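2024-03-11 09:14:02 DEBUG pipeline.ingest accepted 1 chain
2024-03-11 09:14:02 DEBUG pipeline.ingest length=310
2024-03-11 09:14:03 DEBUG pipeline.predict start
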Amino acid sequence: MISNGWAVLALWLAAGAPATGAATPHIFAPGVISGPAQDDAPAFTPDGATVVFASGSGNSSAILVSHRQGQGWSKPELAPFSGEWNDQQPTMAPDGAFLVFVSNRPVHAGDAKHPSGNLWRVARAAQGWGVPERLPDTVNADASVWAPSIAGDGSLYCIRRQKPGGPLRLMRSQRTTDGYAPAQPISFGDETSQDVDPAVAPDESFIVFASGHPESGKPERLFIAFRKGSGWGPPEDMGDAVNGPSGANGARLSPDRRTLYFTSDRSAPTHYPRTREETAAALERARSWDNGSNNIWSVDLGPWLDRPRT
């Protein structure tokens, strides 16, 4: 039995939509998309009818696909281009024409697996998915390139180390008529901070990312920054309500760019004493998703996007 409060919340959660005007995160599609595995990086088609995300355990991950069904989502299925290699962090082009993801698949068919991760592109059309192709060396400049995000003009954001042993930095590769220009670090971050997992608006008017200082032992936290001239304004910590006690990362945007999706291992709030019914509901959640694994959460971006900015 689920208490009345949890029953109402469960119905609302199934749709995966945040409460309007609230900066309170909510678990996304619990028990269907956010489940007992490590789930992250939801990439939506422009109509919001399909979501592609990564799911796995430990160092093994695959890309799954789910479709909108009424107010909920279908049982996720393995994407036709995934399953042989460790595939992670899918991101959708704003027009839905292709997906970019991270994979350890070999550069050349028949070779051993890639030692870390590079970015691959797979076309998406009405008739289905294409064959993944590795992005050029101007993007995949070394053995570890991660966390893609695609701007409206096709330019690509990602993360990699500028020097061996250094922290991960946010990089941007300009889309050109010939492909991609060499990736360049964007205008915030320093030699000690580690900035990861960008989610950029198609018009590049704002960006959400996670940042931290690895040597501090503290978890990464989500920040938001807005376009200022040809660069970016100062990043703003999104606060404890979003970041939670264990931090957050894996930023992704909804098709209308009004909702932020992110990855967190937080649990549902609890209190003591509680009723037997509340304990039974908590045990049911633990079997479904609430067991300390990474899950996908969402929060309304309205409080940040709608306020006046100078």
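2024-03-11 09:14:41 DEBUG pipeline.report The longest strand covers residues 60-69.
2024-03-11 09:14:41 DEBUG pipeline.predict end
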